Amino acid sequence: ADDLESRDTPDAAKIDHDDETISTAKAQAIEQARAVGIMMTAAAEKVALGLFPKVAGLAQRLRDSPTLQDAFERHIAAKRAQAGFKTSSTKVHLDCRVPTRWNSDFICLNTQVELRREIQGFVTDPEHGLQHYSLTDAQWVLAGDLTEALIIFKEISDRFSQAEVPLVYEVIPMLEDLEHQLDALRNDVTAPAVVRIAAQAALNVVGKYYALTDDCEVYRIAIAMCPDKKMVWFNQNQDWHEDDRVTARQIVIKRWMESYAGEERSSVQSESTSDTVNTEPAVRIFLVLNFLVLNSITRDLETSALQMVCRTGATSNVIASVSRYDTSVPRWPAGV
């Protein structure tokens, strides 16, 4: 319990960093979007501004009031018992927005989208005094659009939060996949302007941290060592220019020559002076073992890689933050 509590305690420096990152990305995105004709109307801004206060407020109100929660559960049971009412949901509680939890905005919003029909009848009943939490039709539409955008980050954070994954070689492919999805969302002319602007802000954050992978050679070395990727992955990847591919290859060769080739030659020479047996198979095995050792080193560096990748969590915060135009955003757990 103490460990969970410490993980949910925001670090002051992390809070300041996230606020600055999101504020900067949001301002840049609004200008970038305006330059290509993506602009929010005053009406759309009003819809976006009112969405999260209502969603988060209703969930918190029910959590704080056992009486209201009990009434909500009875309302849900009666609603689902009606003839012709169909739902696959078994939920009877609204998930609260917890700033220190991953994907909190998505979970909070998605639950209410899932229980929309049950919620509408409950909050509009004067008996409960919750009418001010009722979403407009436009806000329900925006809620659905935002859940579709935020699920991009949930899938990634769910994978990266597992103890056994990710490996270092998955970092760059993941960032590229995230860029592609956000790029498609930004260019989707059917999406609301606020979502497209948020996608641009998220792209700015992802691009910033993707660029930082150039400072650490292990990301490219790990891809080159991966059995189902190797250098072929770079050569077939359209996101990589020829100069980038050449640099990646040079990095792998340089690291091999500096850290392993000398040891291999010394071992071979030592064995050849005392044994006339053909050493070629042994050399090949030695080469493989050396790469396995290097692979174990990259796994040891996984923690530092995750620290960098988890910073992309700010991108999902940007999506939600732009939609409500404030700087109160979820925080990554302290120490991540």
From TrEMBL:
UniProt cross-references to SUPFAM superfamilies, sorted A to Z: Ribonuclease H-like
Matches recorded under InterPro entries: RNaseH-like_sf
Domain of life of the source: Eukaryota
Protein known as: Uncharacterized protein
Organism this protein belongs to: Paxillus involutus ATCC 200175
